[in-house]
Amino acid sequence: MTRTWVLPILLVLCGSVVASGLVFNGSPGEAAVLLLVFVLLAGVNSPLIFPRPIGALEAQRRSAVDGRPVVYWRSGCKYCLRLRIRLGRSARQLHWVDIWRDPAGAAAVRAANEGNETVPTVVVAGRPRTNPDPEWVREQLSPSA
């Protein structure tokens, strides 16, 4: 669990150090802007922007019941972030599995990607798709799909 928070914490700490240096050099305005940028970067790379992850086995069980896709992701992945942001509110309808928190999820991703932990990997009806277009994922949520 703490592994997913390493990058955001480092971003905030680095931003704080650099901003402190700017304040001591007489540039409090620049320091505030820079600190804000670092905090925003930390927020984007934190687990807070993604729906609460569940385990791979639970996600597979739920997907079998409701037919919704399973998304395997990890924090700090720019492609996962792109998918999450472009899906907007419909992202909450998906089953999200953080492969850094769930070894079974990491194993499922490796099985789908020739041994690589390439994310995002979206599984629909047992068929994986690596780094899919967000519009395709949204189509998988529609009742006609």
TrEMBL record:
Organism of origin: Streptomyces griseicoloratus
Keyword Transmembrane helix: yes
Membrane-spanning segments: 29-50
One Pfam family matching this protein: Glutaredoxin
Keywords: Membrane, Transmembrane, Transmembrane helix
Protein name: Glutaredoxin domain-containing protein
SUPFAM superfamilies for the chain: Thioredoxin-like
Domain of life, per lineage: Bacteria
InterPro entries xrefs: Glutaredoxin (IPR002109), Grx-like_ET (IPR051548), Thioredoxin-like_sf (IPR036249)
GO BP, sorted A to Z: cell redox homeostasis
PANTHER family xref list: GLUTAREDOXIN, GLUTAREDOXIN-LIKE PROTEIN NRDH
Occurrences of domain Glutaredoxin (ranges): 70-127
A GO molecular-function annotation: electron transfer activity
